[in-house]
Fold:
Amino acid sequence: MIVRPARSFLWVAPAIAAMAGIAAGQAAAAEIGAAGAGAAGADPLRDERAVTRIVAGALGLPAMAQPPGGPPAAGLVALGRRLFFDRRLSPSGTMSCGMCHIPEQGFTSQELATPVGSHGRSLRRNAPTLLNVAWVTPLFHDGRAASLEGQALSPLLAPDEMANPSADALVARLAADPDMRQAFVESGSEIAIDAVVNALAAWQRTLVAGGSRFDQWRFAGDENALTDEERHGFALFTGAANCAACHTVAPDHALFTDLMFHDTGIGVRADLAAASGLQVPVEIAPGRTVLVDRALVESVAEPRASDLGRFEVTGDPADRHRYRTPSLRNVALTAPYMHDGSLATLGEVVRFYASGGVPHAGLDPRIRPLDLAESDVLALVAFLESLTSPDVAALVRDARSVPVGNAGP
Amino acid sequence: MHSPRFLLATSGSICLAVALALAPASARADETCQSPYLPKITGQEEFVYVWTLGVEGLGDGEDKLVTIDARPGSKTYGKVVHTASVGGRFEAHHGGFNDDRSQLWLGGLDTSEIFVFDVRTDPGRPRLVKTIRDFTRASGGVVGPHGIYALPGRLLISGLSNDRDHGGRTALVEYSNEGKHIATHWNPTSDKPFGAARGEVADGYGYDVRVLPRKNVMLSSSFTGWSNYMMDFGKMLQDPEAMKRFGQTVVLWNLHTRQPREVFQVPGAPLEIRWALGPTHDYAFTAAALTSKLWLVHVDRDEKWHATAVADIGDPEQIPLPVDISISADDRLLWVTTFMDGKARAFDISDPFHPRQTYEKEIGRQLNMVSQSWDGARVYFTSSLLANWDKKGDDNEQFLKAYAWNGKELDQAFAVDFNAEKLGRPHLMRFGSASLYR
Structure:
């Protein structure tokens, strides 16, 4: 009987490959089944280059606020990358950070509106991209974490995410693993929870993805970098459609977020949908949708968890259903959209805004019906698609330069 | 939807008894749905092994192999005679025997453990002899060991997912009977079709794998990845992105070289594959779960293979969700179980291109696996699909039910209530008998 050795194949989500222009051959490191592929083909200057991204930033992004103590050591970045993709960080050995923030899927989960954690537990919210996360503060859709270092403990300990019973238990497990001890020694860190969160934060800060065609056009004076349609989209974005009121564009840079919390109607929309509608559309095969009785769906469903947004952090009724404005950089790579992943495409998002969101008492007054022609909708989408960084493919390669960590003998 | 409906036995359910009496003496298969390399139990099965998922707060809460006495006349007939817990909850699901049937290998879909039980030393008391905990690492990233299928000297394990994104792209993995990893064969995808015809539609998903040695072929089917099969079922049905991530293909492989030959489009998650057993019956059935359709994979005179949709199962608009099928030894009857309406349906498949439903019965509020004895006279059912897909509340009945089948009617012989007995969620069934080793 002939037995072939394990094969590997390209592992780039088609959407990303197309959007970020990843040519098949370029993504050599992005292979499945390539346990240990990392070490062999790794760029020897990989970690230094990563630190340089923190210091140098990228066209279109403001200077990064440096963490206390300055840019991290290369060894800490290397440790962070490794930990990020190590499934042993969860007691069940299934969840790493990278199982929800998937490099080939825009460092989010494109295959799910909201992810599932340890033992299949349901999460309420869509996983945000980690591209340019160094500029995001406060973190989470409801802004409950102030820094990346503070944020990391949350998924590590949440029972529905990585489900460690405590930080001490996690550290004890890592310390018992010879591979892990070695990784910490190489990085020059003690095995301690501070080192874990500092390392994770350090590597995430290196995920800098600017320099899009929009940036070339807007901040580097390249008149031809955008098409007429995309420029028209930008004019609407900052003009008639008033998107930039919240997705901010400054004269010398653009984060596309005011880092504030607003009610666009998405929060109440989910409640309204759950309360109305006797039937649920279910796509049972590509292009084949059937309407299923809600009672049937509910017979196999947990009760739906409510989500009150920023209110859950501040307790201020005015904050009910408010969520942080997300950046729109690389947004073409991070579908589905909104805090609950309820909109599948950028076209759906723009049409959602054009129709005035979901009118209700708390709706932000800047969300109102827009008088947009179909060509305007397409122009806005085209503009949003011009915000994709050419550096994403390299970041995916950087991410996949380490093997996924799994339990072993 | 739970109203018991007995839509019945029209003229079609002919002479099954006669047919069963004439069951071929072929040694290629055991209780109708097993690897052709296994010794089979052609007489009375003595034990039913049930791979059971632990439920938090119920009994010891652990996954366990439950042994039920199936010997008529025995003092413990129809009772649980042994349980062997495996130390935690791993999403117990499928498994299979090795080629001499001395071991039963059982997989955990969540954390990718494989538990190896000795069923030979004392068939009434299976004993855990080995636990493989590094399946994902050894296989180079395969998650969710699902179908476990005997080949000479080794086991062929079809994965469901992978360690990079918990999606559906996965592989077939070979282990030696001794428990060593031998090879990993990634399923073809449109990016890497590995030379398979119609590779552009390949999705790389996995579920079942079954062989037809005389044609040197193997078929694999396709379900979904960890994120979906671990997810709350209701949440998933309402997540349009998740619903896009189901297998839509059946792959025909060259058995000897393990090269994928051809990819067939079979939309809506084709699950169990059942080769017909007759020596000239070169075809297999599979049921697409989401689209509720029976498919036939068959070869023509020019040795060209085809996949053809041949029947609907129930009303596809209501998503009855066919989850298991079992073919009779004479290739004339196919049992189909549907999870949502809890029904068992019998299809007359004497003409494999035109299966006709001849019988249906509601077995419970939810229903999953079906296994029949070699002579077809005894049919066993279990209730659980997946921990987070099972129905909630009162609908969450958990049982094994045994029936006698006389060709016309299912008559209940015994039932074990897995909730009342604090056992958990019963899934896969396999038969055991001391007669195999004498």
Summary: Residues 351 and 377 of chain A are 7 Å apart (CA to CA).
